[in-house]
UniProtKB/TrEMBL annotation:
SUBUNIT field: Homohexamer arranged as a dimer of trimers.
Main enzyme class: oxidoreductase
This protein's UniProt keywords: Dioxygenase, Iron, Membrane, Metal-binding, Oxidoreductase, Phenylalanine catabolism, Transmembrane, Transmembrane helix, Tyrosine catabolism
Known pathway: Amino-acid degradation; L-phenylalanine degradation; acetoacetate and fumarate from L-phenylalanine: step 4/6
Annotated CDD domains: cupin_HGO_N
Residue ranges crossing the lipid bilayer per the database entry: 522-542, 548-573
Primary role: Catalyzes the conversion of homogentisate to maleylacetoacetate.
SUPFAM superfamilies: RmlC-like cupins
Active-site residues, Swiss-Prot/TrEMBL: 299 (proton acceptor)
Example GO biological process: L-phenylalanine catabolic process
Needed cofactors: Fe cation
Organism, as annotated: Mycteria americana
Record GO terms (molecular function): homogentisate 1,2-dioxygenase activity; metal ion binding
Name of this protein: Homogentisate 1,2-dioxygenase
């Protein structure tokens, strides 16, 4: 069937997740029995057949079943025989366990003339855990195909298929109707449902299979009644049938206990004229996901991106979650915005439908995959970390044009021999993406590595300069401990923005303050400023040599160096003014702005060994008069920060 004709059949869907749906083919109106499920004679001479997705005695919220009214019942087939096709397995002991971070390059799609593969023959089990006979477990499969299933259908006796097409459209015919599933959409074919896949060229995708549970919407909790994947956006096909005889035999394939079996019948299994129930196949478009994210600070856990979950027997622990990383806004302040470094008690399998994953722009490609097993460390690569650590934190679009997803499971997944060896797609250099990560630890700089940003670089550099200036150059300052409040690039900050980066408690003296401030401190400060700045320039040039970045950084460093020098000169002049006023007996006044305007050092707080040098009380807000008698320096400091002044 051509794609245009197929689209004609699939132009209508019913919406709602887990709803009780009713549908009949318009060619046979009234095909559904009224008032009962199993009449003695069904309309149009149809057979009534129930498809159960749960035990009869399950509570109503979890009871799943549908009634199908078909031309011939499903029981009309010859015996099943083993089918040696595809690369499906549930043997998780083929190879030794591997706890390493694993990544696969895009899985190759064979060319049609050389090797024709349909959906079934192109199935490959990549990893999994658990046992279909025990009804507890999952499996992750890759499918690559280049031709449609002709007179063949498949049903899964072991569990549900969640199908994620990555390349090429899937035109799926089921007993309930037809669905067109394209990249950026998903579909779920639940246990026991027969389906056939038609493709138009090379096609590739991922499958998450769960044993013993069905997918359901996650609980929203404090999010409320709306959000994430909304039930109304899930689409269910409408009834469609074909009354077609197949003299050459129609092949019905069953996946049973991890193996394939085939049986023959002489008619199409897609002969359901009408149906009703809540156990159906469905599809969902990932762009309809309503994203929840942090709007203040920190990176939220990826569980906020859960589309569907298959619950385990333990409350709050999923057998498997289907999680996506859709386009969204990133606005968190003071936050490393990419996914954090992580060691998880869950297994994380990731795939990429399109674009680039935000935490690994290189190496992780559409059509590829990665597996981070239980407690295996993982996180952003070195390039991502460096960029995100230096990025300007403005509102920005994240993952635009990208769609990555994750199958997360509470089971410890084992990789198959095909995944580790036969496929030849394993990236053995995956671990190298973290090798360039380096230590940024600096015990002398609380705000982090001084190379993290230019701002922190110059603040730490200035801190060292002032320490050197007051501790080593001015040897005659002895009796008093000194506290410096360092504030960079703020003309008039509020008191809450002032944080003391260091405290100097060495004794100092006011004797010979004029010569000290005018000679050795000045020379020492300028010399040390030039030495440290030159060293910083050399380091920056070595790191960014030969790029425009190096020129920008060097120019910026020159400007900051000049500003630091000017700020010191202003501070030095104000210090001379303060000390000269203190040395006279006649009180003189000066404005608070003289202390705060264009100064990096807003206040020099000088205390005696036992009593403050200054005491007093505020009287007005215009002038600040310092006597040799003592005034309240704490109050004076608060006033200066607010642009106020005091008079003793």
């Amino acid at each position: 069937m051509g794609e245009g004709l197929f689209r004609l059949w699939v132009s209508q869907y019913m919406s709602g997740f887990g709803n009780e749906h009713v549908s009949e083919d318009p060619r046979c109106p009234g095909a559904l029995p009224e008032g009962q499920n199993n009449p003695q004679v069904c309309p149009y001479g149809l057979y009534a057949e129930q498809l159960s997705g749960s035990a009869f005695t399950c509570p109503r919220p979890t009871n799943k079943r549908s009634w199908l009214y078909r031309i011939l019942p499903s029981v009309c087939h010859k015996p099943f025989k083993p089918l040696e096709e595809g690369h499906l397995t549930h043997n998780w002991d083929e190879v030794e366990p591997d706890p390493n971070q694993l990544r696969w390059k895009p899985f190759e799609i064979p060319k049609a003339p050389q090797n024709k593969l349909d959906f079934v023959s192109g199935l490959h089990t990549l990893c999994g855990a658990g046992e279909p006979r025990g009804r507890n477990g999952i499996a992750v499969h890759i499918f690559v195909c280049n031709t449609s299933m002709l007179d063949r259908c498949l049903y899964n006796s072991d569990g549900d298929f969640l199908i994620v097409p990555q390349h090429g459209k899937l035109l799926i015919t089921t007993e309930f109707g037809k669905m067109l599933v394209e990249p950026n959409e998903i579909c779920v074919i639940q246990q026991g449902m027969r389906f056939s896949v038609e493709v138009f060229g090379e096609t590739r995708g991922y499958i998450l299979e769960v044993y013993g549970a069905h997918f359901e919407l996650p609980d929203l909790g404090p999010i409320g009644a709306n959000g994430l994947a909304n039930p109304r956006d899930f689409l269910v096909p409408v009834a469609w049938y074909e009354d077609r005889q197949v003299p050459g035999g129609y092949t019905v394939i069953s996946k049973y206990q991890g193996k394939l079996f085939a049986a023959q019948q002489d008619f199409s299994p897609f002969n359901v004229v009408a149906w009703h129930g809540n156990y159906t196949p469905y599809k969902y478009h990932l762009e309809k996901f309503m994203v929840i994210n942090s709007v203040a600070f920190d990176h939220a856990d990826p569980s906020i991106f859960t589309v569907l979950t298959a619950k385990s027997t333990r409350p709050g622990v999923a057998l498997a979650d289907f999680v996506i990383f859709p386009p969204r806004w990133g606005v968190a302040n003071n936050t490393f915005r990419p996914p954090y470094y992580h060691r998880n008690c869950m297994s994380e399998f990731m795939g990429l439908i399109k674009g680039h994953y935000e935490a690994k722009e290189e190496g992780f490609q559409p059509g590829g995959a990665s597996l981070h097993s239980m407690m295996t460390p993982h996180g952003p690569d070195a390039d991502c970390f460096e960029k995100a650590s230096k990025a300007k934190l403005e509102p920005e679009r994240v993952a635009e044009g990208t769609m990555a997803f994750m199958f997360e499971s509470s089971l410890s997944l084992a990789v198959t021999k095909w995944g580790l060896q036969t496929s030849n797609r394993l990236d053995k250099n995956y671990y190298k993406c973290w090798e360039p990560l380096k230590s940024h630890f600096n015990p002398k700089c609380k705000d982090g590595d001084s190379t993290t940003s230019l701002g922190s670089l110059f603040q730490c550099l200035t801190t060292l300069l002032v320490k050197k200036f007051f501790l080593k150059s001015n040897r005659n300052l002895r009796p008093f401990p000194l506290v410096l409040w360092l504030v960079t690039w703020e003309k008039r900050p509020t008191p809450t923005s002032l944080q003391p980066p260091f405290r100097l408690n060495k004794p100092c003296s006011l004797s010979r303050y004029s010569s000290d401030l005018c000679s050795r401190p000045f020379t020492s400060f300028v010399t040390l400023l030039w030495t440290c700045s030159s060293t910083s320039m050399s380091l920056l040039y070595a790191e960014y040599r030969g790029t425009i970045t190096s020129l920008v950084l060097l120019a910026t460093l020159f400007l900051i160096q000049a500003r630091m020098l000017l700020a010191f000169l202003a501070t030095w002049a104000h210090c001379r003014l303060i000390f000269r006023r203190l040395s006279t007996n006649t009180p003189r006044s000066f404005s608070a702005g003289q202390l705060s305007s264009h100064c990096m050092l807003y206040l020099v707080r000088i205390r005696g060994n036992s009593q403050p040098l200054f005491t007093g009380r505020p009287e007005n807000t215009t002038q600040c008069v310092f006597h040799r008698e003592k005034i309240g320096i704490n109050k004076a400091f608060s006033a200066v920060c607010r642009g106020r002044a005091f008079q003793s």
